[in-house]
Amino acid sequence: MRWVEIYCAPTADSREIWKASMTHIALEGGCFVLSANQFCRRKDYPPPPEYVFSGTEEDLTPDSVVCAGGSVIISPSGTVLAGPNYDGEALISADLDLGEIARAKFDFDVVGHYSRPEVLSLIVRDHPTQPVTFTSTSEKTDGPHK
């Protein structure tokens, strides 16, 4: 069985909460996560009024930061290996130990040894059905469920 080893997640979201999302993906997927984000200032865009930044300060200067970056590399164990960088344009890098992927699968492997097909399954129907059905081991009644 093959699994994702390196998950690439480009974004324009420079909020700190994005790192939490990337950490969750790394832990849940048992993979390395490389999230690249842009760092840009107002001067990197065409002059006003061709481009309007809604929801930002009214008097943007050419050096005002529009997107603060936050690129990050996270290991399958949730350890931040590089970044996040919010200080300007930068190149981040990290040495990846691919053996860490297998070690992470021993902790939590959602499609491997922790999967329980005898308990849970996913069925995809290609036709309309009732969204909710009731089943019971007791005798079936013709009246509404109470």
Structural descriptors:
146 residues; Nitrilase/N-carbamoyl-D-aminoacid amidohydrolase; 2 helices; 15% helix; flat; nitrilase activity
Structural write-up:
With 146 residues, the chain is an alpha+beta fold. It has a domain at 6-107: Nitrilase/N-carbamoyl-D-aminoacid amidohydrolase (4-Layer Sandwich), CATH 3.60.110. Helix content is 15%, strand content 16%. It has helices at residues 17-29, 99-107, and strands at 6-8, 32-35, 39-41, 65-68, 71-74, 80-85. The strands form two sheets. Strands 1-2-5-6 form a four-stranded mixed β-sheet, with helices on one face. Strand 1 (6-8), helix 1 (17-29) and strand 2 (32-35) form a beta-alpha-beta unit. The protein is flat. The relative contact order is 0.17.
Are there runs of 5+ residues with pLDDT below 50, and where? none
- Global Rg: 24 Å
Give me the number of helical elements: 2
The strand line-up of the biggest sheet is 1-2-5-6
**Strand portion, in percent?**
15-25%
Q: Could you say which structural class the secondary elements and strand pairing correspond to?
A: alpha+beta
State the helical fraction.
Answer: 10-25%
Whole-number average pLDDT?
81
The CATH class of the domain at 6-107 is Alpha Beta
Provide the CATH architecture of the domain at 6-107.
Answer: 4-Layer Sandwich
Order of helices and strands: EHEEEEEH
Q: What is the terminal-to-terminal distance?
A: 46 Å
Number of strands: 6
Q: What overall geometry do the principal axes of the alpha carbons give?
A: flat
Largest sheet: 4 strands, mixed
